[in-house]
Amino acid sequence: MHDDLPIEISRVLIAALRGGSGKTVLSIGIIAALCNTGKRIVPFKKGPDYIDAGWLAMAAGRSCYNLDTFMADDTLVCQSFLSHTAHTSDTSNDIAVIEGNRGLYDGLDVDGSTSTASLSRLLNTPVILCLDCTKSTRTMAAVVLGCLHFEPDVQIKGVILNRIAGPRHENILRSSIEKHCGIPVIGAIPKLKSQDFPERHMGLIPTPEHSWAKKSINAAADVVAKHVDLSEVLRIAKSAEDKPFSCSADFSCTDDGNLSIEIAGSRQKPQNASHNHSQTPKIGIVKDSAFQFYYPDNLEALTAAGAELVYISPLSDTELPEIDGLYIGGGFPETHAKELAQNIKFRNEIKVSADSGLPIYAECGGLMYLGKSLVLDQPYPMTGVLPLEFGFSKKPQGHGYTIAVVDRENPFYEIGTVVKGHEFHYSKVLECRGSDQDMVFGMEKGHGIINNRDGFCYKNVFATYTHIHAMGMPQWAETLVRLSKAFRMKDEGV
Description:
Structural class: alpha/beta
CATH superfamily of the largest domain: P-loop containing nucleotide triphosphate hydrolases
Largest sheet: 9 strands, mixed
Radius of gyration: 23 Å
Strand order of the largest sheet: 15-13-16-18-27-26-25-22-23
CATH topology of the largest domain: Rossmann fold
Number of helices: 13
Strand content: 25-35%
Mean pLDDT: 89
Distance between the termini: 46 Å
């Protein structure tokens, strides 16, 4: 690494013993409270999550990036962290705050692969443990002691007590943990009112659907500022400043002053590279409260590959603008089914464009929108691009990491490609008038659309329940941009 480049910044990871312990609200509060003191926070979310990341981004006032060692290998995760902090780590005010997922040591196997703890080791980042102390006292000291000894190389440097019933409860917990575990209790947060952070399904509701999101974030910031020792949070974060990462990286500057990062022999293209605007394809991004699940890395990868992004909404736009490609991300179209169905002109233009060969890539909610209809209290017609009808269940129909192998010809992926991603949906296919031959993913892990198949293809349309991350599938953005350029040239008669 070059000594003259500010690579490493103060960093801390907020973890918990299990999902639902309150670490997201705590992370939101810590980020917002630190921002209120003049600190500049770079937020990250461990794992494949959109909703929590959206809240963290709003609290920090900047994009939140996901760090996931299942969808991308360790060196690429290091690259992501370094590239997103290197440009901002020029003052002592910069701090990276990473929110973990599930329990600290929960992973895909008995060795804890892809766990929050493994990310902590990879980035050599100290951990603050959030403890849900509901109906427990001294036992929490035993739990913390077990965490300290379970993987001793994980740096648990502080504990925050959550959902405290009162002063007596706090005193017993604080005394027990500090006496038996030898680490400081740096905060004790009382039970919060549930209306400040209402939940949907298995997490916080998406921020675009939350008209008073800022009020909730401010409430969390106030609680943290009052009940957490922020100076201790800063001390723990600062202790990581000079520690090396567990991946090999080389930083250098290009001739135009952009940052270039080389890891394991693979050099990332510098950001903000200039493009020939006369050949720049326009890719529509369907983004509103119905379709909101996009990794910032995916959108930035499209731009880096040479696309101009055009944001559109079937909830507010009456027609499709002039575009050369379309990306429809996930979301909850079922909560807006009536409005989506009523925008007949927009739906019809999507169908006509798909029939004419417009490159379209759709994930989860986007897949549903491209189908024939959504059946709730009644059928709501969608675009009809794909011969699929969707219904909904109260339980997840697909939830977790996915592994798909491409075994059919298609415009986006070569046969034999292994696609690692994730799925999370309550929808299910009620009727499929296509065949297994229309789907190009064979699911080795995960549910998919139907019959262990996913990746429905029609002309230049590719729709799937599987969400991918561009960091782990770099060919995805390049392919969508290439197809969009070809469509643009065809449309222009070149």
